[in-house]
Every structure is written in C-alpha cells, then in structure tokens.
What does this fold into?
Amino acid sequence: MVYDSGYRQLFRLLGYPGCEKEAEEVVSILASENERAMQLLDVSCGPGVVTKSIISSKMFAKVYALDFYESMCERAKETFERECTGNNNSYEVVRGDVSDLPFANETFEKVSSTAGMHCWPNPVKGMKEIKRVLKPSARSDEDDWGVLFSTVVLPRKGNETRETYKWETNKPFLDREAVLDIVRESGFDEYEVVREDKAYILVKARYF
Ligand SMILES: C[S@@+](CC[C@H](N)C(=O)[O-])C[C@H]1O[C@@H](n2cnc3c(N)ncnc32)[C@H](O)[C@@H]1O
It folds into this structure.
C-alpha cells in the first residue's frame, strides 16, 4: 500500500490527475452506454490502482488487466479481490509483454494504458501489438476511439532537442511530438492529445 501511494504521489507532482480521475477519463472516453458488451484490455496495470475503478464502473463487460511482472499481477489481483467486490465485476489478470500480447487479432473493442508506455522496451512494437489485438473503430461514429493512453514527457526540455535527446526505457519522452511519432509509426489513422499538464500527456487513437 505504501508503494502504491508512493509512486502515485510522484505522478501527482508530475501533473497526473490522480487514479480516480484517470479511471473516470478512461470510462468517459472509451465506454459507451449503448454497448456494455465491450471488452477492455488495460495494458501495464501495475498494482491495479487505476484499473480497479475502471472495473468498478461496470461500464465494460469484462476488463483484462495485463502486466509484464508476476509480482505486479499478484498485487493487482489482491487489489481487485479487496476492492472490486460488488456484483457483476468481471475481470481477469494476465501476465504478458506488451511487445508480444497473448491474445488473438482483434480481440478487444477498447484498450487503455495509464503511465505505461515510457516503461516499455519498445513503444512502437507495443503500440503495434495493441493495434493488432484491437478491433477497428467505426468510421461512422466520431466518438468511437479504440485506445486511450497516458505517459510521461519531460516537463521542461532545457537544451534537449530531437538530435541530442536519446530516449531509453523508463525515461520520459522528449515531448508530445515524440509520443505522437510513436502513434503514427504504429499505424493508427487518427489520434488526439486529450490533456497535457507538466509531464503528463493523455492521447486517444484509433484505426479503421
Ligand atoms: C508506472 S507503472 C503504471 C502502473 C499503473 N498503470 C498506474 O497507472 O499506476 C508501469 C507498469 O508498466 C509495466 N511494464 C513494464 N514493461 C512492460 C512490458 N514489456 N509489458 C507490459 N507491461 C510492462 C510495469 O511492470 C509497471 O507495472
């Protein structure tokens, strides 16, 4: 519990809105009142501090929570068993690598990921995998976004430029363009920055 609140306090200082609000945003952008039969994959769920509120919203037919580390999956299971106790809470915790997701093509209607991408070994490979397991959006529905993710960018670039900055796993990205390059390179047709604050960036994306 100390660890859960510890890293999340740091995220608050970096401009993140906080677990509850981040879950609310996932629900408001990805869920649809008319289509509760949708399945959501939450990539890099960590100890489940955001995912638990997505599950408790009951706005998705089933939430799959995935993380690379067995220890995180165990923490997420404990969180959900403790806090997602109401009726009709449907979830599954899956250990897996975003670079090689253990799901068939076009399994999910929606995919979310909070504060995950900067921790991935290869963000383009990760986003391509997310696109592979995601169903295409309906062109006719302007509110039908397939993916919503947040990650960390440098709050102040200082003297860093595209030429000098070398991104590595677990480092903030240089800026919003560096994040959007990843989305473009992964083959998504449309994307939009939903919110930015200091080191926080929230992006929605879709393909047809
Ligand atoms: C900063 S935590 C975010 C946790 C949670 N989503 C949140 O918002 O608090 C980043 C997570 O990414 C996970 N991660 C790192 N590499 C990964 C990979 N290759 N595939 C999936 N998840 C990975 C880590 O285990 C960690 O739980």
User: Anything to note?
Assistant: The chain has a mean pLDDT of 95.
